[in-house]
Amino acid sequence: MGPRPSEFEIIDRYFSWALPSKWHTQGIGDDCALVDIGATRVAVTTDTTAIGTHYLPDADPLTVGYKALAVNLSDLAAAGAAPRAFFLALSLPSSNAEWLDAFSRGLHEAATQFSCPLLGGDTTKTVMVNGEAAAATITITAIGEVCRGLTRGGAQAGDDVWVSGTPGDAYAALMLRTGTWQGLCDSYLASRMDKPTPRVALGQFLEPIASAAADISDGLIQDLGHILSRSGLGAEINAGAIAVSESLAKFPQEKRLKAQLAGGDDYELIFTAPKSVRNDIEAFARQAGLVLSRIGQTKKEMGLTLTDADGRIIHETWSGFDHFKSDN
Amino acid sequence: MGPRPSEFEIIDRYFSWALPSKWHTQGIGDDCALVDIGATRVAVTTDTTAIGTHYLPDADPLTVGYKALAVNLSDLAAAGAAPRAFFLALSLPSSNAEWLDAFSRGLHEAATQFSCPLLGGDTTKTVMVNGEAAAATITITAIGEVCRGLTRGGAQAGDDVWVSGTPGDAYAALMLRTGTWQGLCDSYLASRMDKPTPRVALGQFLEPIASAAADISDGLIQDLGHILSRSGLGAEINAGAIAVSESLAKFPQEKRLKAQLAGGDDYELIFTAPKSVRNDIEAFARQAGLVLSRIGQTKKEMGLTLTDADGRIIHETWSGFDHFKSDN
What we know:
The structure is a homodimer.
Chain A: H1 7-14, E1 25-26, E2 33-37, E3 40-50, H2 61-78, E4 82-92, H3 97-113, E5 118-125, E6 128-129, E7 132-133, E8 137-146, E9 160-164, H4 169-177, H5 187-194, H6 200-206, E10 212-215, H7 220-231, E11 234-238, H8 246-249, H9 253-262, E12 269-273, H10 278-288, E13 292-299, E14 304-307
Parallel strand pairs in A: 4-5, 11-14
Antiparallel strand pairs in A: 1-2, 2-3, 3-8, 4-8, 6-7, 9-12, 9-13, 10-12, 11-13
């Protein structure tokens, strides 16, 4: 075995080629690639979820099906795209009819809810390892339509930083279910982990007015970090301004903060927008019944300053989630 | 465990929904879906290949990278599409730098050869099972551009049936490497298994003149069967007319025929075309230096009649490859 590069190093080192494209493209390395096909700009994303990695080994297959599509629709939402179609590649250790029935119902539920038809796919049997079934992996490629398209790279100094929903809930559910945190995983927290809501309508609303966006799959700080590094900016963030759910608020501040800032798996949107559209965003939030928190602003100077509700600096060492880092 | 449906039953039973699509589509269940995005018709395909299923456990990662893209480009070829872009989802048990380096070089070789840039992707770590690494799976979604697009569904009674190359070579290589056949796997046969040639130029040539096409991933008879069932036709096929490589010709007729007719993994094209374009097809074959065999014709009456070089009926019981059939 050679040295073990991280997920981001893998992409940079091995898969960042410069082959000419007949279709104008941008946003490679973002949540979506934006590709101009004729006069239509599409957003395309590919995400794999795997039993044991993204789902607990005994996860309900209905929620597995729902979430497998939801995480891809979340990437489309981050680009401000309207979902149009998806393709499914399913690798299974065996073809258990009961599992497939529930999985396909969950997938169908998300596809119907977000008007995103399944247009093709592939089904593969994975091998047994020492008589044990290999984990199921589900790869979905989703395609949406945008006008301009949001990327991580357009933030301007002085923009507001916003986040949707109540980040940290999915992480809290995972910690409770695995016994890392003491306590019962209530049905609200469970639903945020099992059936995250891709913020598709929010993404489409933001597309003409926001300056940059990402979805929170790896943790708020890490995903904000992608926006800042792509945009060449820093930010001041008040963690105390992040909306917190009743269920998460019951836990001590240290646990809560880690869940909110580094938890990941929330599929909320973090985005930047000029101050001039603050009222429009607040009006959308009221109308949609969706919590949107204004949590800070970007600045010219690189680096991230994190404070708590009382204005004290938070010295955090969490780095968000990297699939190939051994300390996760 | 419930009953175990086959790969085709899985698709029919669980994933054949009728959700409305904003983009006009056809060919769902074919090698590619054809999707109209604005004035541009694209062909989209998703294929997973897995170590241990599509590659031997000790496969050279360079050939794994090449083949992972080649099999998707072969689907684009079957639709008559010009490759435009692909997306990669890689599920790995660990991030071995040596493996990734060779894999990415193989992938890059195929991408460069067929002018198909990588526009996005996802890297996921799969779990260990009982301390053993789970198999690596590679899912690629490839997008090409077509005018009309070929599907499996357009064959007419009385069309010629053609096949490219020398089918059976990849299967022979597999049989020899696994010791199922006695003998040495020569470098020619090995190359047909490890680095199959997607028939991209042939597909684009055929697009305006052929009536139906499929690539041979599951075996000539099974893939021809897809064309016949989609087109509502039968066929008479002379197996003796299928071009055979020098390497495969050394094996007894029974082995050879099974490899040619049911072998799969060849990624040659099987297609139907009216008699009126016979000369055009032969001229293309000469110019491209590619063997094209005219192996029979379609007929109104359902069913497939297979004969050998002497006109004797072949009673074969092979059904081609089904990932979830236990007898494979």
